[in-house]
Design goal:
It is built from four helices and 20 strands. The protein is mainly β. The protein has a single domain, classed as Porin, CATH 2.40.160.10. Strands 1-2-3-4-5-6-7-8-9-10-11-12-13-16-17-20 form a 16-stranded antiparallel beta barrel. A two-stranded antiparallel sheet has the order 14-15. Strands 18-19 form a two-stranded antiparallel sheet.
Length: about 375
């Protein structure tokens, strides 16, 4: 019933927006077809992990292709977008394993839904539910070099609710400032508002770099101790005719959060990812990605008891190798493998009843966007 209700609501939105797009707008000289856009994306997968299934059959770090030894659907999504001279808006609904395991439990089928208007020539104000402004990688396979996201990206926010000021002084710079309910939440959990910024610079057709941050306190209202978090990300992209390079890193600090030593001092986390993609032929490419994640005090990952009976947060590294075939510009077939290696004393994975500090993964993804 719930999904039928959502789909019925989407149909109503489509009809209303179509009618709105066909109405004459005296403030714009664009044709209706240029204002109104419908798009979609589907990604299906088969995955195999050398780790026992976790809760609800989802593997550890569940997001893209989270079920082992199964054929599954990462996402089936549709977007309705409206762009005019002074107003704009977008609604994206998604269904599949990403929506189930990685999205808001309250609004898991809403990927984004926000509306805005132009304040002046180069400044917009938007409000609603947004996809995250933060990070080096995107979440969807079509947005990244590899299909599976890095552990670095797993612990970053995926979605957010609030208002955004979008300023684009020229074709090279984009500046966004956010007021948000919190870190990776749609609904406010403590009535304290958070803030964020994203700045990107594109000096030419081959290079793009940016900086983003998040500043907020997401502790429970019952907690009398403040836990201000400052999370920062830097990324760099290079795209030539055959070679694509993506590099990024995070540094996060949160006050009064040393879980390991149970002291009211700041805890820190740093992580990084680097991906390379090389076009072998017109339709064939090979790619590789390396990643590190260091959260010794358990700021993001929480703590475990290692083999030496010491409490510690996750410390790991990973390597991904893969190949891609693109029969058309908007489709792909990817096959990739990844090894995740925890610090040797952190045996968080299980296979055949035995604990292990290593997990191997095999993924096959097919996707189309339209």
């Amino acid at each position: 019933m719930r999904r039928k209700f959502i789909l019925s609501g989407l149909c109503i939105v489509l009809l209303l927006l179509q009618g709105f797009a066909q109405t004459n707008d005296s403030t714009s000289h664009s044709s209706p077809g240029e204002k109104f856009k419908i798009s979609g994306y589907v990604d299906a997968y088969y995955a195999y992990y050398t780790d026992s299934a976790g809760i609800n059959d989802f593997q550890k770090f569940p997001s893209v292709s989270p079920r082992s030894n199964q054929f599954g659907l990462n996402t089936a999504q549709v977007s309705v977008e409206y762009n005019a001279e002074k107003v704009r808006g977008i609604v994206t609904l998604h269904f599949g394993d990403i929506a189930k395991c990685a999205w808001s439990s309250a609004y898991n089928n809403i990927m984004e839904a926000h509306a805005g208007f132009r304040l002046c020539k180069k400044l917009w104000l938007d409000a609603g539910f947004f996809r995250t402004h933060f990070g080096t990688e995107g979440l969807l396979p079509k947005e990244n070099i590899a299909s599976a996201i890095s552990v670095n990206t797993f612990y970053e926010p995926y979605f957010e609710a609030g208002v955004r000021l979008n300023y684009m002084p020229d074709s090279k710079w984009a500046i966004n400032i956010y007021a948000l309910n919190g870190y990776n939440v749609y609904e406010d959990n403590n009535k304290k508002k958070s803030f964020g910024m994203a700045v990107t610079y594109t000096p030419g057709a081959t290079i793009n770099w940016g900086y983003s941050n998040y500043i907020g306190d997401d502790s429970s209202p019952a907690d009398s101790i403040a836990h201000l978090r400052i999370h920062q990300n830097l990324f760099f992209n290079y795209q030539a005719q055959k070679l694509k390079i993506q590099v990024g890193g995070d540094y996060c600090i949160q006050e009064n959060t040393d879980i390991v030593y149970k002291k009211n001092i700041a805890a820190t986390m740093f992580s990084g990812v680097m991906g390379l993609r090389y076009q072998l032929k017109e339709k064939y490419a090979a790619y590789a990605r390396g990643e590190v994640f260091h959260d010794r005090q358990g700021l993001m990952s929480g703590v475990i008891l290692d083999k030496e009976n010491k409490y510690t947060g996750y410390i790991l590294r990973g390597i991904t190798l893969g190949a891609e075939y693109k029969p058309t510009a908007n489709t792909y077939l990817r096959i990739e493998g990844r090894q995740l290696q925890m610090k040797k004393n952190q045996e968080i994975f299980y296979r055949n009843g035995k604990a292990s500090a290593q997990r191997m993964e095999f993924l096959c993804n097919i996707g189309i966007s339209f």
